[in-house]
Design brief:
about 110 residues, mainly alpha, 2 domains, 3 helices, about 0% strand, binds zinc ion
């Protein structure tokens, strides 16, 4: 299997997983959405964090991944991945925030 095929398969698997997550949480039964979110949301956040670790700034404030090309052409600019993230989540800003309940569900109560 070539690198291109592996890359395409991994990329498609990631998008299928994300699409499934959105579908279950937005259109699924509330019980399934809650169970799925509790199980999958930490996994998705871990994946996003792992991606963003690659986009950490260096000592000069350049993103290590987005800083490519000849040194004399490099300009200070936002990390493209971080910028894409903020643009993508911005469209959801008009949704009401979800506040944590003041009480815990019985299965979440401290023992
Ligand atoms: Zn970056």
């Amino acid at each position: 299997m070539t690198n291109e095929v592996v890359f395409v398969n991994l990329r498609e698997a990631m998008f299928r997983r994300l699409d499934r997550a959105v579908d279950i949480v937005t259109r699924g039964h509330q019980r399934d959405a809650i169970a799925f979110a509790r199980r999958e949301l930490p996994r998705l956040v871990a994946g996003l964090r792992a991606l963003m670790v690659l986009h950490a700034p260096d000592a000069e404030g350049y993103c290590r991944e987005c800083r490519r090309g000849r040194w004399w052409r490099r300009q200070h600019s936002p990390c493209l991945a971080l910028l894409a993230y903020h643009i993508a989540v911005k469209e959801f800003d008009d949704q009401p925030p979800v506040e944590p309940a003041k009480h815990r569900a019985p299965d979440q109560a401290d023992a």
